[in-house]
């Protein structure tokens, strides 16, 4: 049943920190409806996934990312 | 973060949006005002960045656009609370967010920006590839359609000629 492929963590591979101001990067981890993708879809390690959700929420507060798709 | 830092001033980052009903120069004076507010509360500014006018992802107080400004500073915890309160009462600043960060040197900051730009370029290249494939498909589809239209036109021409011939014959008969 569980044949999800193991992906490499984007932030570990590129040795980047998650930044709420870097909208272009954040944009690839939300779906069409601007929902945050789960960790098994993003392939990000748990530590960075926690940072990512925080960053996306911060970006939403500052109107850098839309909270929903109109 | 190390515990010893908790007593002294620590590094904070503040991003704020100035309302759109000001010109860029007026917005810059407001930014300077906010920054002076930081220094008045005992903070020392380490880095500032003015992003300029940007479209907001959603409307805030009937503003579709806003001037973004970023500011990094060292301050005490009590000062942050004060600053937060005054900014929240301000009509000029639509929204602000103060978060604690670790202090960065200019070199480190440049490196981070470079990396972000690189990953953005990679992402765009991928999108371009998929985009090109899509365009090719669309073009191919259009060509097929055009061919069909031409064949249809040819058939119509034939029909017109036949009709004319029949009509002429009919007139002759009359």
What's the quick description here?
The complex is a heterodimer of chains A (70) and B (174). Chain A is mainly alpha-helical.
Provide structural commentary.
- The complex is a heterodimer of chains A (70) and B (174).
- Chain A is mainly alpha-helical and 70 residues long.
- Chain A has one domain: Ribosomal protein S18 (30s Ribosomal Protein S18, Irregular), CATH 4.10.640.
- Chain A contains 4 helices and no strands.
- Chain A has helices at residues 10-13, 23-27, 39-42, 46-61.
- The N and C termini of chain A lie far apart (35 Å).
- Chain B has 174 residues and is an alpha+beta fold.
- Chain B contains 3 helices and 4 strands.
- Chain B has helices at 24-40, 77-89, 106-173, and strands spanning 10-18, 44-60, 63-75, 93-100.
- Chain B has a 4-stranded antiparallel sheet, with helices on one face.
- Chains A and B meet through α4 of A and β2, β3, β4 and α3 of B.
**How does the major sheet of chain A shape up?**
none
- Most extensive interface, residues per chain? A-B, 19 and 19 residues
Q: What string gives the helices and strands of chain A in order?
A: HHHH
Please report the total strand number of chain A as a whole number: 0
Q: Average pLDDT value of chain A?
A: 88
* Percent in strands of chain B: 25-35%
Q: Which word captures the global form of chain B?
A: elongated
- Describe the oligomeric state of these chains in a short phrase: heterodimer
Based on CA atoms alone, the radius of gyration of chain B comes out at 32 Å
Binned, the helix content of chain B reads: 55-70%
How far apart are the termini of chain B? 105 Å
In DSSP terms (H or I, runs of 4 or more residues), the helix count of chain B works out at: 3
The general outline of chain A is: globular
Fourth CATH level, the homologous superfamily of chain A: Ribosomal protein S18
Structural domains of chain A: how many: 1
């Amino acid at each position: 049943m569980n044949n999800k492929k193991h992906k490499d963590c984007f932030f570990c591979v590129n040795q980047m920190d998650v930044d709420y101001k870097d909208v272009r990067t954040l944009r690839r981890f939300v779906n069409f409806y601007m929902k945050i993708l789960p960790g098994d879809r993003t392939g990000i390690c748990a530590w960075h996934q926690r940072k990512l959700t925080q960053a996306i929420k911060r970006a939403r507060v500052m109107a850098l990312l839309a909270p929903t798709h109109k | 973060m190390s515990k010893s830092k908790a007593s002294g001033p620590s590094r904070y980052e503040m991003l704020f949006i100035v309302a759109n009903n000001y010109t860029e120069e007026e917005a810059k004076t407001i930014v300077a005002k906010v920054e002076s507010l930081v220094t008045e509360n005992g903070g020392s500014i380490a880095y500032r960045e003015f992003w300029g006018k940007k479209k907001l992802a959603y409307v805030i107080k009937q503003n579709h656009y806003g001037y973004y400004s970023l500011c990094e500073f060292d301050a005490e915890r009590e000062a942050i609370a004060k600053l937060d309160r005054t900014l929240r009462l301000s009509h000029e600043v639509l929204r602000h967010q103060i978060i604690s960060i670790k202090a960065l040197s200019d070199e480190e900051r440049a490196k981070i920006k470079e990396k972000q730009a690189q990953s953005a370029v990679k992402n765009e290249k991928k999108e371009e590839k998929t985009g090109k494939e899509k365009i090719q498909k669309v073009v191919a589809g259009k060509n097929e359609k055009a061919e069909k239209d031409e064949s249809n036109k040819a058939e119509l021409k034939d029909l017109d000629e036949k009709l004319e011939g029949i009509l002429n014959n009919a007139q002759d008969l009359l």
